[in-house]
Design goal:
Layout lengths: L3 H6 L1 H11 L5 H37 L5 H33 L19 E6 L19 H8 L2 E2 H7 L6 E2 L1 H20 L3 E3 L4 E3 H7 L11 E2 L4 E3 L4 H6 L4 E4 L5 E10 L18 E11 L4 H18 L4 E5 L11 E9 L4 E10 L3 H6 L1 E4 L5 E3 L1 E9 H11 L7 E2 L5 H4 L3 E2 L1
Parallel strand pairs: 4-9, 8-14
Antiparallel strand pairs: 1-11, 2-3, 5-7, 6-7, 9-10, 10-16, 11-12, 12-13, 13-16, 14-15, 17-18
The protein binds one RNA strand through helix 3 and helix 4.
Length: about 425
RNA sequence: GGAGAGGUGUCUGAGUGGUUGAAAGAGCCGGUCUCGAAAACCGGUGUACUCGAAAGGGUAUCCAGGGUUCGAAUCCCUGCCUCUCCGCCA
């Protein structure tokens, strides 16, 4: 969430940001409630002060052996007033906090304004023209989409997934399963090499954690819920990783703190349909290695570029053609101030697949989860948080299958994975 | 799941209704001493909200939420968590 003080002092700037994101502007409501809230606070605190002073007097009177009936009956009235004001305040604060949680983060000035996919800027691409690119050349033969190849090679079984669980829960088999495991290990090892601490987080999260990273209160529909225990299946490792330091004060010299984690991710994806859910393109359960950073506010945009290049390096090592999109204001999430998407080219489908989303949240999440650091000799201040996928597995698998297919329907394994897979070709 | 014990500041740990934001010690910061360091000694050392231009006030905070009381870290209820024992289990 945003700092109420910041909103109070820069209402126009915040409104402008909301407008750019295409969200509903409720800033005037926030400010009105804030005013009401502070008025009630002042009233109750004055009464509480009176109560404290008189109570102390009563103590003295009683000690001296005298009667304090007069003062006590007076305080009985004050007590009731305090109670009713406290109730009023509680209601106002609840409303105020809920409203504040729905105010989106303000976009960074460098983010292009727009609301359509075309407004996202492709700022970099890497691929076929690169001398190291060794993938398929579509002039040689007509490349197939990954689901056809995968079924034929018996490495992914979509039908059995439907039987056992439902659509979007495939079985990986044989060298397909091994390829998954190889990619996870490759990604984790690379992250470790870049100084990310490896974590195996819980796969279920509670309400507070989901609220902290912004999945709640609005986006409950995207998660699977375990009602009986009030838990959610992780939609991304971002949630447990970012909440790892909830309510903590980090020490300045420890920043930046960098974590990586592999987890399955569970998403309901309600409302998805059509060809962009075919095969591995959109699943309810998928594997992902996630990167999260807690950083000094002054460095967060540098750290964002660092995160981006860490993720890009993986694609380059896998020799997969990709492009980098700087996402426009309207395509950015609720919590982000700047976001890049990495999209890999899937030659069989002839489309771009998003494999990583790299964001700076500035202090937006940190304020929700209350993660601060202490300035040398000074007051605690909120850190900035960032995250990025490094990377999401299924679409990488799809891209490998499609871009490394041979005319005979085999798939060549990218060189960097050989030591993890133990084989160099599938089929 | 059953039975018991317990949750106090950065940490250890006192405190069972009235100057308790909270003893004491450790840690940390500053100072004295020292060529320098250690030791010793002296001083300082939570957070949030709120009023205020500031200085400086005020309120809250001893796991969380309710309750009793003029007044609660202290009494009562509920929840969460930790520990011990039993059961179950990979």
């Amino acid at each position: 969430m945003l700092d109420i003080k910041f909103i109070r002092e820069h209402p126009d700037l915040v409104k402008e940001g909301i407008r750019k994101k295409g969200d509903v502007d409720r800033i005037d409501e926030v400010l009105l409630l804030d005013k009401k809230r502070r008025e009630v606070i002042q009233k109750t605190e004055a009464l509480k002060n009176q109560r404290n002073v008189v109570s102390e007097e009563i103590a003295k009177i009683k000690k001296s052996g005298q009667d304090a009936i007069q003062a006590i009956s007076e305080m009985n009235k004050v007590k009731d007033e305090i109670k009713s004001l406290d109730n009023e305040l509680r209601k106002i604060e609840e409303e105020f906090n809920n409203l504040l949680l729905t105010i989106p983060n303000v976009p960074h000035p460098s983010v292009p304004e727009g609301h359509k996919p075309e407004d996202n800027q492709a700022i970099f691409s890497w691929g076929k023209l690169h001398p190291e690119y060794i993938g398929v050349n579509e002039t040689d033969f007509e490349p197939k989409p990954h689901w056809e190849l995968a079924e034929k090679l018996d490495i992914i079984d979509f039908g059995t997934g439907v039987k056992v669980t439902g659509a979007g829960f495939p079985f990986y088999k044989n060298r397909g399963a091994k390829l998954q495991r190889a990619l996870i290990n490759f990604f984790l090892d690379e992250a470790h090499g870049k100084g990310y601490i490896e974590i195996q987080p819980p796969l279920m999260i509670n309400t507070a954690s989901a609220t902290g990273t912004g999945q709640l209160p609005d986006k409950e529909d995207l998660m699977y819920v375990v009602n009986r225990d009030e838990l959610y299946l992780v939609p991304t490792a971002e949630v447990p990783l970012t909440n790892l330091h909830r309510d903590e004060i980090l020490s300045e010299k420890d920043l930046p703190v960098k974590y990586c984690a592999y987890t399955p991710c569970f998403r309901r994806e309600a409302g998805s349909y059509g060809k962009n859910v075919r095969g591995l393109n959109r699943l309810h359960q998928f594997d992902k290695v996630e990167l999260v950073k807690f950083v000094h506010p002054g460095t967060s945009y540098n750290e964002l570029e660092g995160l981006r290049s860490d993720a890009e390096a993986l694609l380059q090592k896998l020799n997969l053609p990709y492009r980098v999109l700087l996402m426009c204001t309207g395509d950015m999430g609720f919590t982000q101030s700047k976001k890049y998407d990495l999209e890999v080219w899937a030659i069989g489908q002839k489309c771009w697949l998003e494999v990583s989303s790299i964001s700076n949240f500035e202090s937006f999440q940190a304020r929700r989860i209350n993660v601060r650091f202490r300035l040398a000799g000074g007051k605690p201040e909120f850190v900035h948080t960032l995250n990025g996928s490094g990377l999401a597995l299924p679409r990488i698998v799809a891209a490998i299958i499609e871009n490394y297919q041979t005319p005979e329907g085999k798939v060549i394994v990218p060189k960097v994975l050989h030591k993890y897979t133990g084989f160099e070709v599938i089929g």
